[in-house]
């Protein structure tokens, strides 16, 4: 039993050491908020790749245009990559937190926040801080608070009370245009909004980058939508033309290679029964699904190839 307890304790210590090393090497992966933020970034990248990849996968005209005019696709891909790069730059940038401005506003606070002078004793379960060091930290903290208070209150009209501009969550005096973000749990300078797609606040530090990202994303979305509309329009027109003339896609694309269509004039569709009957058959199919169609005789095909006259138009020959 004692040996098992020793083994468990040693294994627990090893796991703690591994977790400490992982947290030091990859702090973002150990933080839940950072992990969810990275999950959002991966989802946004997959969303962009999916929408762009589908149009290149199914649009044959776009592939043909890419081979004929490669600069068109090159410019589009440059916009695509630039948008993703701007997305990562914006989402990874700091909006400008009040606490960071407070640290940068006085050198003593910066020293206190980054490298506090702590005297640790090698006791078993606790760290002991000497009273002199504790007093020094308290003096530095009070000096920093008073310095920031004076700096911020000078920005407000005379007679303003400190308690009116103190954040109830951070307990920090907010300068003008600052606001506490409940998602980030920090006060942000020139708070604009919290963008859920970027996973960060938009403030003084990244407001310009945010608008550049919006500009590039808008160009990419509009360009992609135009490509989709062009593709769907061509497919719809193709489908309507096939329904009006009673053709299949294979017969339209491979007309010259199909034996039973060789020798028939280009504008003559041998299986067409007129626009009205073709549409009726296409929209309201009836009868057996195994209907077999014969190729019309040459005299009938030559009659269909005859140019239209005024009498033919009045009599609705095409219908």
TrEMBL record:
Q: Which domain of life is it from?
A: Eukaryota
Q: Where is this gene product found? A: Endomembrane system
**Keyword set for this entry?**
Acyltransferase, Lipoprotein, Membrane, Palmitate, Transferase, Transmembrane, Transmembrane helix
Q: Which sequence ranges form a coiled-coil region, renumbered to this chain?
A: none
* The enzyme's E.C. designation: 2.3.1.225
InterPro entries attached here? Palmitoyltrfase_DHHC, PFA4/ZDH16/20/ERF2-like
User: A single Gene Ontology molecular function, please?
Assistant: protein-cysteine S-palmitoyltransferase activity
Q: Which Pfam families match?
A: DHHC
Q: List the catalytic activities from the record.
A: L-cysteinyl-[protein] + hexadecanoyl-CoA = S-hexadecanoyl-L-cysteinyl-[protein] + CoA
Instruction: Say yes or no: keyword Transmembrane helix present.
Output: yes
What is its membrane topology?
Multi-pass membrane protein
The segment(s) forming the Palmitoyltransferase DHHC domain are 166-238
Q: Where are the transmembrane segments?
A: 38-58, 70-89, 210-231
Q: Which family does it belong to?
A: Belongs to the DHHC palmitoyltransferase family.
Q: What is known of its domains?
A: The DHHC domain is required for palmitoyltransferase activity.
Protein name per Swiss-Prot or TrEMBL: S-acyltransferase
